[in-house]
Design goal:
Distance between the termini of chain A: 49 Å
CATH class of one domain in chain B: Mainly Alpha
Number of strands of chain A: 2
CATH architecture of one domain in chain B: Up-down Bundle
Number of helices of chain B: 11
CATH topology of one domain in chain B: Fumarate Reductase Cytochrome B subunit
Helix content of chain A: 55-70%
Largest interface: A-B, 28 and 35 residues
Strand order of the largest sheet of chain B: 1-2
Shape of chain B: elongated
Number of strands of chain B: 4
Radius of gyration of chain A: 17 Å
Oligomer: heterodimer
Order of helices and strands of chain B: HHEEHEHHHHHHEHH
Structural class of chain A: mainly alpha
Structural class of chain B: mainly alpha
């Protein structure tokens, strides 16, 4: 039970640490899937 | 004289006619058989049929914007909105049906010798921590992933647009962010248990005997039997595949173009759906399918009789190791001088 709870807490902590990192690298859909002239296909 | 002039006019006219025909034939023969994409009269459908895509030249740095239509996208759309639903539905519902039938026929695999009351450590605290971190992330990733494939036809009619939209947005966040602890878990599982999961001759015998699950025999097994080794490799290879393809989708155009991303999505979705089906079987055998199995990951210990029946070679190794340690403790550290 202790291992399970610790695992859940650790998963949440790693996910929260990933939030700012991912947000700084990942582009919004409107940017990632478009080019200066239109949509990327 | 008049008739001669009429005759001359007829001959001249005929010659002119044949000359026009003769000159026009080579021109017709030189007509290209392919579609001229720059012709103003060419239809879009004809272009697609001939060229597989409508693409032109652009002067801006992003050359991808020159692609106007890519019919492979239509194939991909058909795949993820029709074919994938069939593959996922058959795999997951088929596995659930098989497990229900198996449970009704075989019931829970009991410890035949009964509980001995003595236990042995099966998994350390760190091993259980890694297992549960990967497992809890997997469950959330599976539910949020299945929502992408099945949410629209199954959930949307039940909860409505607003609730489905909000739920899907949060499910997508969870899917993205929990992919990191899941990937860490898969890597740790690979490193932690690789030594015990190399296939060997014992596995062949175990499989021939039906693993003690189909029949009532208890074939010998080391720490991990052939079934557990199969699950291990599915987790490592399947988990690796969904992680790589998932990150490819999370960062569009970083690694591949749109066709590579469509392929990544197909691999991600198919492996993910099969992964869910396999994990259902893993969860079944670890809970209601086998008496005493859950304790291994729940408390870290198993009953000695459970270990004797399902992992007899591992139990022998553990007991020999313990005996060796005890003998070393009882042995005098130095022999008296004669």
């Amino acid at each position: 039970m202790k291992a399970f709870l610790l695992a859940c807490v650790c998963a949440v902590v790693v996910a929260l640490v990933a939030v700012p990192g991912l947000n700084s690298v990942q582009e919004p859909v409107s940017v990632a899937f478009s080019s200066p002239s239109g949509v990327r296909l | 004289m008049v008739s001669f002039a009429r005759y001359l006019r007829f001959v001249t006219g005929a010659a002119a006619f044949f000359l026009v025909i003769a000159l026009s034939v080579p021109v017709a023969a030189q007509q290209p058989s392919q579609v001229n994409p720059t012709a103003s009269s060419v239809t879009e459908q004809k272009l697609l049929k001939e060229l597989d895509r409508i693409q032109g030249r652009v002067s801006i740095p992003d050359k991808r914007s020159g692609v106007l239509e890519q019919p492979a996208g239509r194939d991909w759309r058909y795949f993820h909105s029709v074919t994938l639903r069939w593959i996922g539905g058959i795999a997951i519902l088929g596995m659930l049906a098989l497990l229900v039938i198996f449970y009704l026929m075989r019931g829970m695999v009991r410890i035949e010798g009964g509980r001995s009351g003595r236990t042995i450590v099966r998994f350390s605290g760190f091993e259980r921590f890694v297992h549960w971190m990967t497992a809890t992330c997997f469950i959330i990733l599976a539910i949020s992933g299945l929502n992408i494939t099945f949410g629209r036809p199954l959930l949307l009619p039940l909860i409505g647009f607003e609730a489905f939209s909000a739920w899907s947005q949060w499910a997508k966040y969870a899917h993205n962010y929990l992919s990191f602890p899941f990937t860490i878990g898969v890597v740790l599982i690979f490193l932690m248990w690789i030594a015990g999961n190399i296939p060997n001759k014992v596995d062949v015998e175990w499989l021939k005997e039906g693993g003690g699950i189909v029949g009532h025999k208890h074939p010998p097994a080391h720490r991990f039997n052939a079934g557990q080794k199969a699950v291990y490799w599915i987790v490592v290879l399947g988990g690796g595949a969904v992680a790589i393809t998932g990150y490819q989708l999370m960062f569009p155009f970083y690694v591949t173009g749109i066709e590579g991303m469509q392929l990544a999505q197909i691999v991600h979705a198919v492996v993910g759906a099969l992964f869910v089906a396999v994990m259902l079987a893993h969860i079944y055998i670890g809970t209601i399918g086998m008496e005493g199995a859950f304790e291994a990951m729940g408390e870290g210990t198993v009953d000695l009789n459970w270990a004797k029946e399902h992992h007899s070679l591992w139990l022998e190794e553990e007991e020999n190791a313990r005996r060796g340690v005890n003998q070393a403790h009882h042995r005098p550290s130095s022999t008296p001088a004669e």
